[in-house]
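hiii so um. not sure if this is the right channel but i have a protein structure encoded as tokens and i wanna go backwards to a sequence. like what aa goes where. can anyone help
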């Protein structure tokens, strides 16, 4: 059975719900940065991605462009 809170957030648009999740995640990360630990596989993936970026920085997409695409109403 949905709670009152879930009924309220389901009224938000997809982009507003994404923003809500982002805001919640940011607040958790700010309050407890030491409790968010990466697995060895996650660390290795980050290292791989960083190496790929350093090898060819032109493939990077600016955050503003990613965010704009995420929050646009276009598919």
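sure thing!! here u go:
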């Amino acid at each position: 059975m949905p709670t009152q809170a879930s009924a309220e957030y389901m009224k938000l648009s997809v982009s507003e719900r994404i923003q809500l999740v982002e805001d919640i995640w940011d607040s958790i990360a700010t309050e407890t940065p030491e409790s968010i630990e990466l697995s060895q596989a996650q660390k290795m993936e980050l290292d791989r991605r960083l190496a790929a970026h350093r090898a060819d920085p032109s493939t990077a997409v600016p955050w503003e462009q990613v965010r704009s695409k995420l929050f646009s109403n276009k598919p």
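oh and Residues 46 and 52 are 10 Å apart (CA to CA).
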